Amino acid sequence: MGENRTTIIKPKTGWFDVNLQEVIQYRDLIFMFVKRSFASQYKQTILGPLWFIINPLLTTVIFTIVFGNIAGISTEGVPQFLFFMAGNTAWLYFSTCLTAISNTFIGNAEIFGKVYFPRLTMPIATSIFSLISFGIQFVMMIGFIIYFMAIGENVQPNVYMLLTPILIIQLGALGLGFGIIISSLTTKYRDLTILVGFCVQLWMYITPVVFPLSAIPEKYRVLIMLNPISPIVENFRHAFLGSGSIEWGYWIISIITTII
What is the pLDDT of residues 120-174, one digit of tens each? Predict the structure, then answer.
């Protein structure tokens, strides 16, 4: 006869009481959530997955017209379109993760109340789904970089491109971390769900997405770079376009913030 076994589910009470092994055991569920997100987001749309390309492309064109041509913001000699596309590609991955994950607990309350599974599986699945979108946009950015280099524009990819996996992981981790914190708070303070979109948009304007770090007065530059996303975006743009520089000191502070 087989042994009788009882599984006891208890609430997590410690700050570091996270069972990552249990999350790994539910990896099939994670990929199921990824497929569900893909199907639900593009269900009953005409263009479907093409929005992965259209959305960042239109955003970059608008940034080029508004901030490049009308506002006349310097792009440090780099083609305006590429400058804004590189910043927007990195920023969109973080902002998409943060916005989607921040709605995890409220948006899936019915599922959480019916069956047990590690709660981390759902935000991790959201982060992976956002990574797919980032991958498509990243390939599109590389295509434009090759084109502009072919026509002789001032684009200088360099060895720092090897840091790309670390930058991507950090962007995803920050989006996951901040998203989970906000999501847990929205279960009690529903007003936060309304504020998230506004705050993310405001956050973008204190991140060097549509402006180079050199355009910021020296006395305010430290404040901009203490934003944990700023060094990542600046490093990402320098690696693929050659503009700006690698901000090692601020990046280390950003990594520490990510770990916390």
Answer: 888 888 888 889 889 999 999 999 999 999 998 889 999 999 999 999 999 999 9
Reported confidence tier of residue 8, pLDDT bands at 50, 70, 90? low
The CA–CA distances, whole Å, from 140 to 39, 89, 144, 154, 199 equal 23, 10, 6, 19, 28
pTM of the entire structure? 0.85
pLDDT for res 83: 94
CA dihedral angle for residue 241, residue 246, residue 251, residue 252, rounded to 10 degrees: 140
- Give pLDDT tens digits for 40-91: 766 666 666 677 788 888 989 999 999 988 888 888 889 999 999 999 999 9
Determine the Cα–Cα distance for residues 229 and 250; give it in Å rounded to an integer. Answer: 10
Torsion sign over Cα 98, 99, 105, 111: negative
User: Concatenated DSSP letters for the chain?
Assistant: -PPP---------STT---HHHHHHTHHHHHHHHHHHHHHHSTT-SSGGGHHHHHHHHHHHHHIIIIIIIS----TTS-HHHHHHHHHHHHHHHHHHHHHHTTHHHHTHHHHHHS---TTHHHHHHHHHHHHHHHHHHHHHHHHHHHHHHTT-S----GGGGGHHHHHHHHHHHHHHHHHHHHHHHTT-THHHHHHHHHHHHHHTTTTTSS-GGGS-HHHHHHHHTSTTHHHHHHHHHHHH--S---HHHHHHHHHHHH-
Contact 125, 31 (CB under 8 A): yes
Q: Evaluate whether 224 touches 87 at the Cβ level (below 8 Å).
A: no
- Answer for the pair 127, 172: CB distance below 8 angstroms, yes or no: yes
